[in-house]
Backbone:
């Protein structure tokens, strides 16, 4: 049996030669994740074949399943991504979030903030938290909420200057150099996925002088270079509506969105929904798929597995 | 009395200038709104001012288009007030932009699917029309001032090209004809742009409370009421000659204001009772907290008590029985407290979370579902008010707005 997910099999491994298997696992995961994150500009070149992992020897009373072959979903998605970028037609980008696997660690929120150098008050992918039940019969549910990149986006037609539009690949783009900062799109988004850059900084009102280096780095959103600066005439994206871009600048360089690579629960998937071979295609054709506020007719491009 | 007025003006102007400079020096950082409540006091104030403008203009149209001769003396003044409040509205909403220097993009690259783009274009047309109407309404008086020094003389020479012979009856008649045409264009224009402001809110699917067909109508009635009340108050208190004609006209205006208060109340009843009646539905909770939540007093005290009950009482008990000052006071209260209605149109829908649990997702003072205008925001609105007053005052001083004379000459 071949599964798309790395984790279920981990359970198989743990419990035998614990230390060994964990090390093998970590090495593997770490190499993938860090290759995606740290190497920055260099896409991970995944081989054409799923990488086979040597499973540690099993004790005689181990699981009676046949030899398992598994692959980290990141590798699968990386291959899907390369195929989508090279196929010659416009891909249909979608994101899938498995709410059952989300542990509410907020790593995606943070990695997104790091990737896009987000200032305070600007957030693209908060993890919505809701308490279910009352103590002691209590649990939490988590719902990461990026921009839905709606196919029928209510935020687009409202823009008085046409500074935001739907791209052919499905991403709803903002031109930071055209946006006048009226915030009409903020009130029009049913998912509250847009935030306004008030020109605030993390080091503001803290002791010391000047800003931290990370506050002065440019952002590469939408494939452009922008250096924030507040002032009478602020430098965009200060004074603009901002939102998740599905990490368009990374996709264009063959990298998965940052939130996908950093999701420790492997709960976030990204890919081309027009390719039946892709992982996301298979995921969104399951019966347990839903989208948020379906009744509004916004046709979100972000699917949730429940 | 007069001295106190000027002291008040001085204080307001100082506060306003403070806000003005802070807006440029600190951008939006001192404002209380955030990303979940993206619009605040400035947007509310803007629709309030633009409503005043539309209302004042429609009042002038009663004279120029529908021939209500009784209101003739105040028609040019109504035009001036309409112009000043248009300016107040535009300045306020300009301050609200994240990139003030890009406002002209709305002309260069408009997206005409957006109600906001329509609005800006319609305002521009309306502003030009107001100027033209004012010109034709006043130019018949200008030859008398051509020999004057100062700005009045300069404007008179400029606008009638140094002509000294008075306008003939025929020419005046022709000017009236032009005004009538302009006013006739202006009426649908005013209805379009102010109904359009209502539509700007009403068309937003994401905001349950706004997304209602009654919004454009509500905005128009509100404009007539607030603009009419403002003109009435200005007329009662500031009209230089308090004679029999002034009395009669004040009574007439008082009756109009009373009628509009009641009509507006009727619409408001529809606005609140329809979504709330059975106590379920997405709007119910939001409206309930408007009425009985933390800011209940905005509705009950500022709107219902000071903006409806007291003015109706004043009008019925004294005003319409001949105590003209009571009409002025009632109208003044209506005009001022209308800001409370505007606030209650804009804010309650926004403070209502669109995704449950979003408030727990990320802690930041810009990512909360609560809003209270800061002093900074108030001071910027005060700037607009002081500006509007200044413009009105300067115009009635340098142009023959009141009965064809300058303020000095009639006072
Ligand atoms: S989620 Fe909101 S911001 Fe994103 S495309 Fe849809 S309406 Fe626009
Ligand atoms: S904030 Fe910017 S992108 Fe949004 S509607 Fe206004 S101009 Fe358009």
Residues:
């Amino acid at each position: 049996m071949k599964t798309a997910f790395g984790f279920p099999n981990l359970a198989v491994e743990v419990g035998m030669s614990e230390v060994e298997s964990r090390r093998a696992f970590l090495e593997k995961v770490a190499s993938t994740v860090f290759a995606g994150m740290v190497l920055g500009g260099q896409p991970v070149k995944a081989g054409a074949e799923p990488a086979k992992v040597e499973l540690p020897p099993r004790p005689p009373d181990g699981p009676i399943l046949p030899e398992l072959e598994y692959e980290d979903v990141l590798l699968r998605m990386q291959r899907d991504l390369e195929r989508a970028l090279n196929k010659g037609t416009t891909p249909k980008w979608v994101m899938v979030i498995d709410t059952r696997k989300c542990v509410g660690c907020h790593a995606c929120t943070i990695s997104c903030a790091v990737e896009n150098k987000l200032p305070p008050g600007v957030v693209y992918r908060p993890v919505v938290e809701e308490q279910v039940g009352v103590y002691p019969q209590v649990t939490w549910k988590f719902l990461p909420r990026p921009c839905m990149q709606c196919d029928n986006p209510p935020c687009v037609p409202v823009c008085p200057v046409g500074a935001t539009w739907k791209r052919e690949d499905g991403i709803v783009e903002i031109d930071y150099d055209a946006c006048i900062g009226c915030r009409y799109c903020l009130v029009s988004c049913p998912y509250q996925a847009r935030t306004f850059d008030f020109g605030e900084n993390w080091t503001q009102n803290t002791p010391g002088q000047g800003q931290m280096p990370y506050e002065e780095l440019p952002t590469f959103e939408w494939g452009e270079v922008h250096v924030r600066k507040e002032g009478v005439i602020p430098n965009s994206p200060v004074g603009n509506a901002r939102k998740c871009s599905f990490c368009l600048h990374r996709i264009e360089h063959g990298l998965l969105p940052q939130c996908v690579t950093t999701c420790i629960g492997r709960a976030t998937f990204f890919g081309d929904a027009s390719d039946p071979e892709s992982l996301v295609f298979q995921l969104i054709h399951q019966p347990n798929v839903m989208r948020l506020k379906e009744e509004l007719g916004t046709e979100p491009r972000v699917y949730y597995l429940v | 009395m007069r001295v106190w007025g000027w002291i008040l003006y001085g204080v307001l102007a100082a506060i306003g200038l403070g806000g003005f400079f802070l807006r440029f020096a600190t951008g939006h950082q001192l404002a209380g709104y955030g990303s979940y409540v993206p619009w605040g006091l400035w947007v509310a104030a803007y629709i309030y001012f633009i409503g005043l403008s539309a209302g004042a203009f429609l009042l002038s149209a009663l004279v120029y288009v529908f021939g209500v001769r009784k209101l003739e003396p105040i028609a040019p003044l109504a035009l001036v007030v309409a112009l000043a409040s248009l300016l107040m509205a535009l300045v306020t909403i300009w301050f609200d932009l994240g990139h003030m220097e890009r406002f002209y993009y709305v002309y260069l690259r408009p997206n005409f699917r957006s109600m906001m783009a329509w609005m800006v274009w319609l305002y521009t047309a309306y502003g030009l029309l107001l100027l033209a109407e004012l010109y034709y309404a006043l130019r018949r008086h200008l030859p008398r001032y051509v020999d004057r020094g100062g700005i009045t003389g300069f404007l008179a020479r400029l606008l009638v090209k140094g002509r000294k012979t008075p306008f003939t009856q025929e020419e005046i008649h022709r000017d009236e004809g032009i005004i009538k045409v302009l006013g006739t264009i202006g009426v649908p224009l005013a209805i379009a742009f102010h109904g359009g402001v209502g539509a700007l809110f009403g068309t937003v699917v994401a905001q349950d409370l706004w997304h209602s067909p009654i919004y454009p109508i509500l905005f128009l009635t509100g404009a007539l009421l607030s603009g009419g009340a403002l003109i009435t108050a200005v007329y009662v208190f500031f009209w230089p000659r308090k004679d029999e004609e002034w009395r009669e006209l004040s009574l007439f205006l008082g009756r109009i204001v009373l009628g509009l208060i009641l009509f507006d109340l009727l619409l408001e009843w529809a606005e609140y009772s329809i979504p709330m009646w059975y106590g379920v539905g997405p709007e119910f909770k939001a409206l309930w907290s408007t009425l009985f939540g933390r800011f209940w007093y905005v509705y009950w005290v500022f709107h219902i008590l000071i903006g409806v009950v007291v003015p109706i009482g004043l009008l019925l008990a004294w005003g319409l029985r001949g105590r003209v000052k009571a009409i002025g006071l009632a109208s003044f209260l209506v005009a001022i407290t209308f800001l409370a209605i505007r606030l209650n149109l804009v804010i309650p829908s926004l403070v209502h979370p669109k995704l449950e649990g979003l408030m727990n997702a990320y802690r930041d003072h810009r990512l909360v579902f609560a809003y209270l205008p800061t002093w900074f925001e108030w001071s910027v609105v005060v700037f607009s008010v002081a500006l509007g007053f200044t413009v009105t005052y300067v115009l009635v001083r340098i142009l023959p707005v009141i009965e064809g004379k300058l303020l000095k000459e009639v006072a």
User: Anything to note?
Assistant: The pocket of iron/sulfur cluster (ligand 1) is lined by residues A 147-150, 153-155, 172, 189, 191, 193-194, 243, 298 (CB under 6 Å). Confidence is low (pLDDT under 50) at residues 1-19, 33-41 of chain A. The first strand of chain A starts at residue 2 and ends at 3. DSSP finds nine helices and twelve strands in chain A.
